[in-house]
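This week, study the protein below.
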Amino acid sequence: MGNLSSRARRRRPTEEKSVSGLLSLEDLETKGYDIENLVFANCGAEGFSYAGSMRVLEKLCLLERVKRFSGVGTGAIVATLLAIGLDSKELQVAFNEHLQNVQNDDELGYESFATNYTEHYGWNYGNHFFDWFDELLESKCFDKELTFLQFYDKTDKELCLLVTNVNKLKLEYCHPKTTPDLPIKQALFMAISTPGVFAPTKYGSANDVSLYVTGALTCSYPVHSFDGWFLSMDSDDSFLNKLESPEMFYMPQVFDNRSPKTLGFFPLDKQKESSHVELVERLASANADLKTPRTTLGLKYKCACQNRATLAHKFSQLKKACSTLLLLAEDLQDDQGNIPLNSFADKVFCDKSFTKSDRLLFPEIGRRPQDLNAFLLTLADEENSISQLRLKLFIQSKLLTLLNQYSSYYKTDINNLRSYFETVFDTTAFSTIELSKLDYDRTVGIVCRHVGPQDVDFEDDDQSFLYRQGWNATVCYFRNLLKPTDDSSGIKSESVNAD
């Protein structure tokens, strides 16, 4: 979510009337949209896009019908805020307050670093977070120590927050069925606790206490939360009725049978966009506005895209030149795979298949055969020849250098201990349970382009961009993928406009 030198600033909530490029809702109706479960992926600053998505659900009268909320990491914050009754506008205010608390917490001073790590195993142990969340609960007429079961009894809504049990090395689900007496605020702090940045939470029975951190270590997108019987509150699905052995409790089969009533939200930053092209094309096919704003982050992203495009073209040229160079070498190699230096250097400059443009891609070749010969001598195993392997390794190094330049345009800057921990965590998250193509039909993929998890200090136009992306991605989902069914509920459908 950023670093100590980057301060989250107060922002006014974005409203749709101030955002250009929003897709119209006039062709959408609530009839048949049977959605009861909302799931939110882990994210960072991209979480502001969820407000645009939720505004669409409000306009379509769908948010009020949701009975179950699930989230992990920062997505757990969004799931909890919506569950306790915040609307899309209040969500933006509270989410920004959360970022401010995380970024500006006095506990993060370097003078307390050693003490916090020694005593709490983490830098931030949550005092400001708990004060902030207590106020939110009381503002919605809930007790500060509200438990999962109490919340379920009061609202008939289920909240699921994913956490990692460090001692047992496993993912756990905080929910009225599994942790009825656990205070929601305690589970929420577990769910957002990035190791190193936040102190782990000790929780369990007297003889079985474990340390808990964010569930995003093992699952960044819990779209399966309400599949199968595991978290079902139906009496027929009780653990007493379903579990035949202790091992069964830990088997993935407990989430078999996908719920058709689940809708998940998954932000696609610049790193993930290329892995989920179909979700991006969903927006493009609806002529959704994907234009990047001319902000500091936006211009940096555009520059990176242009540089990557240039390098991609250069890679294509270099690959062709490398192939030609190897073909020239193969014509000269002896039975032992060695290539005579003088003959190879002469052929590189004389053969028309290796052009002047090709030679410019290899500064080492020089302007004359003698220059190339002198360079190859530095690589050669023998005085007058070079092995095919040595030549291939040299050529391959040219490609690898270019590929490293290509990837560096999207790298994350690490300039202090906090950003180091968060970047390491983001790196490990790439190997977690993420978005599968099998779940595209129940996922709103939000293209966040230039705003990444740690880009907290973004501008107002970036916030409007995120809002628009959340809105448009949700509209595209309903237009293109959700198949309306016959409405047997008796609820009258109404057309909803975007103004």
